[in-house]
Write a structure and sequence with these properties.
By secondary structure, the protein is an alpha+beta fold. The chain contains two helices and four strands, in the order βαββαβ. The longest helix has 5 residues.
């Protein structure tokens, strides 16, 4: 069962430094075209390591929508 949360990157402020990629234990984050980080919501376990590591403060944890 997936986590209740997942990481979400605001591409407006992402500097594509790769810090989040390095700390993600599930390899759920990649830097897309050298421009912004993207999170694979299926792989993300919502641990928050990327949120703490992001120097730009552009990553947040959001609640997954519950599907009935």
């Amino acid at each position: 069962m997936p986590s209740k949360r997942f990481a979400l990157v605001d591409p407006t402020y992402c500097v594509a430094c790769g810090c989040c990629v390095k700390v993600c234990p599930m390899s759920a984050i990649s830097v897309w075209r050298g421009v912004t980080a993207q999170v694979d919501r299926i792989r993300c376990v919502g641990c928050g390591k990327c949120v703490r590591e992001c120097p730009a403060g552009t990553i947040s944890l959001v609640e997954r929508e519950v599907q009935a």
